[in-house]
Structure formats: structure tokens, C-alpha cells
Amino acid sequence: MPSFDCPPFVWDDAILDRDAYHLRPHDIKSVVAIGDSITAGFGMISGRPPFSTVLEYRGKVFSAGGDKGEYTIPNFLSVYSNQKGSSKGATLPLSRGKQLNNAVSGAKTQDLNDEMTRLIKHINREYKDIKHEWKLITLFIGANNVCMLCEPPLSQLPGLASADIFEENVRNVLERIRTE
């Protein structure tokens, strides 16, 4: 990422209790992500078969990546404040997250509740100091639900691609984000 030789922007507007209407980039102290393989960075870089290894390149993901030189939201925000929890490096496919990127490749909206539970436990264990700070949370999911529309009905997964179930799962996790 290019370095901009601009003086730091300091804006003291005397607002002590920030709300979402008065939020500034330097108020955001961490970036969190949940979702599917797109958020996990699955296969962003790959070699040529048959010797290629497919990994999840979480440090390069636009929403939560923290690898040096990448154009990511955490790297942009780091110009204003020290970001905590941005993902760096790569993980094996189907891992359960890295830093505050808790996305799981292959996840569907039905898996969001589990991702959120793991994320909350992880924050309470490893990132207690951000619990009451402003966080930017990216929820990026749905590709696997849509892909299920092309599959024949599976008896063990009824309604996997149903719009109503999709909406219910997303609403439930958004409510958990708001309250927990």
C-alpha cells in the first residue's frame, strides 16, 4: 500500500459518547468478519496442478486481511488507529478462523450461529479489550446457499436454499451481533 505523507488528521469534536452517526475512522479499533469461503480467502492464490496447494489467504481478504501491502479495510483503517485482530497469512481450508476472521469455507447461513458463538468465545478469551470498543463487522455469506439451488433436494437438508430460511438465519445473527 502506498505511503501518504499527510499530517495525521486530528478531529476533536468533544463528543464523548460516540454513536454510529458520529463515528470516525479512528474510532474503529478492530475489524471482524464472518461468512463463507469468500471471506476466508479460499483459493485466492493457487499454483498449477498437480502440485498446487489450495489455502485460505485470510490476510489478503478485503474485509479482514492484515497482510502488509494489501488493499484491505483493516490496512486502510490502520492509517487512523492501531487495528486489532486483522487476519494475517494463510490457513488450511475449513479451518475455524484466524484472528477475528471467523469465516469457514463452505459455510451457509445455517452455520452463522456457530461462527458467531466461536467468535464471541474468541473475543472473550483473546480480545477482551475490544469488547466495548467500536468494531467494523463484515457478514458476507450466501454463495453456498445459492449454489444449493442447482442441487437435487437433499432430505437431510430441507430448505437449504429457501429465501425464508436464509433471511431468518441472517436476521438471527444480526440480532446476536447487536446484543452480544
TrEMBL record:
<dbReference type="Pfam" id="PF00657">
    <property type="entry name" value="Lipase_GDSL"/>
</dbReference>
<dbReference type="InterPro" id="IPR038885">
    <property type="entry name" value="PLB1"/>
</dbReference>
<dbReference type="InterPro" id="IPR008265">
    <property type="entry name" value="Lipase_GDSL_AS"/>
</dbReference>
<dbReference type="InterPro" id="IPR001087">
    <property type="entry name" value="GDSL"/>
</dbReference>
<dbReference type="InterPro" id="IPR036514">
    <property type="entry name" value="SGNH_hydro_sf"/>
</dbReference>
<protein>
    <recommendedName>
        <fullName>Phospholipase B1, membrane-associated</fullName>
    </recommendedName>
</protein>
<dbReference type="GO" id="GO:0006644">
    <property type="term" value="P:phospholipid metabolic process"/>
</dbReference>
<dbReference type="GO" id="GO:0004620">
    <property type="term" value="F:phospholipase activity"/>
</dbReference>
